[in-house]
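Journal club side-thread
Mid-discussion, someone asked how the predicted structure for our own chain would compare to the paper's figures. Pasting it here so we can look after the session.
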Amino acid sequence: MKNLLMLRNHAGLTQQALADHFHLSQQTIYKYEHGLAEPDVETMIQFAKFFGVSVDYLIGNEPEEPQEIDYTVDEKETINKLRQLSPLHRETINILINQLMK
């Protein structure tokens, strides 16, 4: 997972914070970042969704970097809060947003 370390640093997260979010150990994140272990496909998909990139980019098959988006202060705060939620709560928020968009 060639780009996990860069994405994590870009998001301002520690290995422990990322591990906590995905219910993994800090050592597991270290191993993923340094090519000592590979996550299962579902974990790769969840990492890609979390960072807003493709799995191909995450594992280093896609050369271009994620698009930089100019977020407002409110959007940044909302994204930071969303990233701190459990996967279940994030999914609940996504369902609510989809319902509001209808």
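Post-session note: The radius of gyration is 14 Å.
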